[in-house]
Amino acid sequence: MTDLEILVGLNNIDIGFRRFNRLLEHFDTPQNIVKASQGQLVRIEGIGDKLASGIVAIKEQDLEAEFNNAKKLGLSIITIKDEDYPKNLKEIYDPPLVLYVKGRLLEGDSRSIAIVGSRRASFYGLNCAEKFSHDLSGIGFTIVSGLARGVDTAAHKGALKNGGRTIAVCGCGLDMVYPSNHATLARQIMERGALVSEFPLGTRPKAEHFPQRNRIISGMSLGVLVVEAGEESGALLTAHRALEQNRDVFAIPGSIFSPLSAGTNCLIQQGAKLIRNCEDILEELNLNMVPHQLEMRELVAPTDTEAQVLMHLTKEATHIDTLCRISGLPTPTVTSTLAMLELKGLARQVGGMNYILN
Fold first, then answer.
1. What is the DSSP string of 156-221?
2. 168 occurs within a structural domain
3. What confidence score (pLDDT) does residue 353 get?
4. Is residue 225 one of the residues assigned to a domain?
5. 158-169 burial by CB neighbour count: b if 16+ within 10 A, else e?
6. Rounded distance, CA 77 to CA 196, Å?
7. Same domain, 327 and 278
8. 301 and 318 housed in the same domain
9. Per-residue pLDDT tens over the stretch 272-320
């Protein structure tokens, strides 16, 4: 078995990062972990008979169906040992061993802000979520949220309307969409960013999955903006996970008479940064001197290869296959070059692997 297969198998039985590290400390490699006997495994702290049996059974599991289904769905599977695993997420206390990804994660996604809030948001909350998402994506932030109704939806849409990147972290397997009526939104997010989940394919959405998902939302981000949340809102759990992960927590104030603002106002009372505009977030993150993407175009000159691809881009959509043909460059080169041009704000994908000048 490959290390990837072993890590997927360990993820399937919910070993978790901390127990995985204990196993590695004792057995050195993933290969040695699955070769160990049940008697050897139960001697490791946190590994009882049930988990030990599960680990022993991994080498007998048929993981082929999982990988075949992922391929059919256009998913990639990355592990915490991979270079393209999100940098911010790798730093938290309990990162997921495995991430299923539909779309693309970019190095620039380390400059992310999570936007969360009530599923039953008011017009004020929805308007704030969309505006802040729109404005933050316009200055180069990736917007991370949870694909839920209400504030999450407004946050994703704000970034999409501005042509920015957004990532949705899901509480189920990526072979399904929850809520089911967000299928179109999920497809748009995948085209402009990524859908992400740690849950194996076939995992149904359950209430206990969402607090687990929330640590990924906050962990992928530099900070969490809570837009509107009642006293019992799940968004407050995300804020608390952010604090545990040493992330900044921002909150938009609301009416003292609105139950939907009770949670956000309480966060401010407890020390969360009161946010009036994007500049407040930049100031708190010490990023107030970060240049706008328009300035980046002047400060970061295109390489020769980037210039060669740029000369074939216009305001009309051009498919990546056409770019490869007319530029004479190999597909991997064009793909990586387009990714860099997107990071620099010089090009933009508009769906279906079609690109335009930004």
1. HHHHHHTT--EEEE-SS-TTS-SSGGGHHHHHHHHHHSEEEESSPTTPPP-TTHHHHHHHHHHHTS
2. yes
3. 83
4. yes
5. bbbebbbbbbbb
6. 10
7. no
8. yes
9. 999 998 889 988 888 754 444 444 444 456 778 888 899 899 878 899 9
Question: Per the omega criterion (within 30 degrees of 0), is the bond before 86 cis?
Answer: no
Q: Which residue range forms the structural domain that includes residue 31?
A: 1-61
The last residue of a domain, from among 235, 260, 284: 284
- Of the listed ranges 53-62, 82-91, 162-171, 263-272, the one predicted with least confidence: 53-62
The domain boundary residue, chosen from 31, 61, 91: 61
Distance CA 228, CA 340 (A): 35
In a domain, 70, yes or no: no
- Looking at the structure of the chain, the number of domains it has is 3
Q: What is the pTM for the complete model shown? A: 0.78
Residue 344: what pLDDT?
73
With the C-alpha atoms ordered 49, 50, 55, 61, is the resulting torsion angle positive or negative? positive
199-254 pLDDT, tens digit each: 999 999 998 899 999 999 999 999 999 999 888 888 888 999 999 999 999 999 99
Same domain, 275 and 336: no
Extract the tokens encoding 340: 């860099």
In a domain, 92, yes or no: no
CATH of residue 28's domain is 1.10.150.20
Between the alpha carbon of residue 207 and those of residues 145, 154, 192, 212, the distances in Å are 17, 22, 28, 10
Residues in Cβ contact with 69 at an 8 Å cutoff, skipping those fewer than 6 apart: 175, 201
